[in-house]
Amino acid sequence: MQQELFTADEVADRLGLHVRTVRNYVRDGKLKAVRIGKQYRIAREDLEAFTGRPAEPSVRDSTPRHRHVGVSSIVDIDAVSRDTASRVSTLLTGATAHRREGDEQLRIETIYDEQRAHLKIVVLGGLTTSAYIFGLISAVIEEPDT
Q: What is the pTM of this model?
């Protein structure tokens, strides 16, 4: 049987009190709590007994969560010809314009320095989509320059 426990901060937020006030209630024995390490945990039942009303469901129980993983990457490619840099840029522009279903939002910037023959690619997006983009970059730059 799992019991829902609240921190002193969570109880303070629920009751509109300062956290020190909640800790004082615990120390004075007005609010039953268990000490775990250096922090207090208050059971839902004890909070309800203290307030005389049912405790509202916690935000973590009532809010559906959708995890988002973001990627911010800079790809530096040395010794790249202008033609190859142009092919990479065109390919990436097309890939961002024609996203597949389920792809996360994606932003790509390419900068080519002709004097240094250096291509810099900035990728901002989701993990899966960014991995797909890295595969495209790899396929183009691993081809021999013609």
A: 0.53
Residue 49 sits in the same domain as residue 76:
no
Distances (CA, A) of 107 to 77, 78, 120, 127: 18, 22, 14, 12
Question: Which is nearest to 47 in space by CA: 77, 75, 7, 18?
Answer: 7
Number of residues that this document lists for the chain: 146
Three-state DSSP class for 123? strand
- Quick check: 142 and 89 in contact, CB under 8 A? no
pLDDT tens digits for range 124-145: 988 888 888 999 999 988 876 5
Give me the CATH number covering residue 104: 3.30.70
